[in-house]
Amino acid sequence: MFPRLQGILCRLGPVQSPGTPAAAPVVLQFVRGRKKRGMPRAPSKANYVRKPTPIDPEEHAFLNTAYQHYKTEVRAVKTLFLEEYRARKRQEEGADTAMREQQEDEEHFRLIELNRAENERMHQERLVREQKQALERVQADLELSIEKEQKEQEMLERMNELVRQEKEASKRFITMDNIEEAIEAALSDPKNYNFAVDKNGNIVQKTPFAG
Amino acid sequence: MQLTTVLLGWRAYQRRGGPKSIRLSLRGCTNRPFFHIVIAPTPAGRDKEVMEQVGTYDPMPNDFNEKLVSLNYERLKYWLAVGATPTKHVAQLLGLAGFLPLHPMSPIRAQRNRRKAEEAAQKAAQEGEESNTEGV
């Protein structure tokens, strides 16, 4: 019922409708759109009857038979083309099959041979490489065991050294037996640490021993 | 240069089994029509999804008043054998070329054109006479 409004924001060309001013930024167009399918015919067209297309009776008569003949002929031509195509296909396939099979067999055996040769070569390479690796491994094991022994030896020596040092030091230990002598020795031998050392290493004793 | 849509994937698979037409596809540019005679799936648009081109048709007559047509008869044979349907215009062209039988509409069209030309000539003659008599 109400016409839809459609606005065009940008006007690049000259004004088409006479009523719109030149400087208007938006031009409104009333758009009717398509009629809904349930709506009835317009009253001006309610009693409209279409005139059938004019047919020339001579042409019509001619065309009726002419079309039938034409269709028959075209059908025959199409069938002919189909038969030719099928015959050609059959011929091509028949000639090619044997040749193709032979070629495929040859190709197959050639590839199998190539593959076998390649595998053989790789196998030989692998054997050589593995032997070399085995030898290297044996060598490495030997070296490792030697190193290990050496380390053990060094360890033993260090331990022995420590033990020896301790034994040496234990000779000067003060035990319950030596305690009287040690005390007397210490008392009778006073040490004076009240000295200074200059840069050249000369000891300068200024403060005397007290007590 | 004309761009064609390429049939890819599922669409191509769907179109493979459907009906095909031998018809004219409009190429060329403004004020210069030119047709390719083309094999295409029938429901596709006029210029879309072309499967193969099988000829050309130039509707503008050349310097010798000829409308040139080219046809690839081998491929046409294949497609007709497989079941492609030529449209009325293409069927008429093939009939005039002698590849298919003559289409029934060709003589009808020729007759109509002839009649129109005669009427136009008569009208021109009458107007010429009238203008002569008017002058006198």
How does this structure look, described?
The complex is a heterodimer of chains A (211) and B (136). In chain A, a hairpin with a 5-residue loop joins strand 3 and strand 4 (203-205). Helix content of chain A is 59%, strand content 8%. By secondary structure, chain A is mainly alpha-helical. Chain A has helices at residues 57-170, 179-188; strands at residues 4-8, 27-31, 195-197, 203-205. In chain A, strands 1-2 form a two-stranded antiparallel sheet. Chain A starts with a strand and ends in a 6-residue tail after the last strand. Chain B is α+β, with helices and mostly antiparallel strands and 136 residues long. Chain B is built from four helices and five strands; from the N terminus they run H-E-E-E-E-H-E-H-H. In chain B, strand 1 and strand 2 form a beta hairpin. Chain B is elongated, with a radius of gyration of 21 Å. Chains A and B meet through helix 1 of A and helix 2 of B.
Short structural summary:
Chain A is mainly alpha-helical.
Shape of chain A: elongated
Number of helices in the DSSP assignment of chain B: 4
Estimate the helix proportion of chain A, in percent.
55-70%
Q: Tell me about the biggest sheet of chain B? A: 5 strands, mixed
Strand order of the largest sheet of chain B: 4-3-2-1-5
> Count of DSSP E strands of chain B?
5
Uncertain regions spanning at least 5 consecutive residues of chain B:
none
Q: Tell me which oligomeric state these chains represent.
A: heterodimer
Order of helices and strands of chain A: EEHHEE
**Overall morphology of chain B:** elongated
Question: Residue share in helices of chain B?
Answer: 40-55%
Spatial order of the strands forming the largest sheet of chain A? 1-2
Distance between the termini of chain B: 59 Å
Beta content of chain B comes to 15-25%
